Amino acid sequence: MIKSLLCVFLLSVSTGVFAANITIKNANNGPLPNAVVWLTAGDSSSVIPPEAPYAMTQQNREFKPRILVVPQNAKVEFPNADSIMHHVYSFSKAKTFELKLYKEHPKAPITFEQTGVVELGCNIHDWMLGYIVVVDSTIFAITDENGHVDLNANAGEYTLSVWHSGFSDISKIESQTITVATNPITYKVKQEIAEQIDFATDEFDDY
């Protein structure tokens, strides 16, 4: 076991690629789950998103996943897995759009050209709330229940960015310069985190 770990360490050092061990904490120093975390290199060129579109599904009158992270210029589909209609929209600065009443699949995916937080709603089901976080990176993840992520990155200096749906200003992203090497990284957010409320769905509508 020790020999295997040593081999992994030596391989990482020789290639310069590390699993950046990052923990995000709230203002009270507790772990912060469901935080979006991404790394941006100072010398990074334009982000090239994958060809295949991402998906933000409506299922059981909810957005799934509730938070979707995509690189800049990514395409996102909005499939409706319910037997009822949805009317998806966003008035966010990063992307304003509207998909009027539809079932199954809209005709084409939507491209998200601008970085930022896109808040989603449904014009029929008011409790439905989702987020698409568009980032200038392909190195990103969402923290687990322990506020932890592992991000594979080359050794060097990066901007660490953090966003959470409980931020008092959801358009505000926190960031800090870090160095990716072998040492774990801890970041404590400055904003207080509002309690996340799960709204009950209405099972008696006709849409």
Structure description:
The chain is mainly beta and 207 residues long. Helix content is 7%, strand content 45%. It contains one helix and 17 strands. It has one helix at 2-15, and strands spanning 17-25, 36-41, 54-55, 57-59, 62-64, 67-71, 74-77, 86-92, 95-102, 110-112, 116-122, 129-135, 139-142, 148-154, 156-163, 174-180, 185-188. The strands form five sheets. Strands 6-12-11-8-9 form a five-stranded mixed beta sheet, with no helix packed on it. Strands 13-2-15-16 form a four-stranded antiparallel beta sheet, with no helix packed on it. The radius of gyration is 19 Å and the shape is globular. The model is unreliable at 1-15 (pLDDT under 50).
SSE arrangement:
Layout: H1 2-15, E1 17-25, E2 36-41, E3 54-55, E4 57-59, E5 62-64, E6 67-71, E7 74-77, E8 86-92, E9 95-102, E10 110-112, E11 116-122, E12 129-135, E13 139-142, E14 148-154, E15 156-163, E16 174-180, E17 185-188
Parallel strand pairs: 1-17, 3-7, 6-12
Antiparallel strand pairs: 1-14, 2-13, 2-15, 4-5, 7-10, 8-9, 8-11, 11-12, 15-16
Looking across the biggest beta sheet, what order are the strands in? 6-12-11-8-9
**Hey, roughly how much beta strand do the residues contain?**
over 45%
Topology order in helix (H) and strand (E) letters: HEEEEEEEEEEEEEEEEE
Distance from first to last alpha carbon: 57 Å
Oligomerization state: single chain
Structural class by helix and strand composition: mainly beta
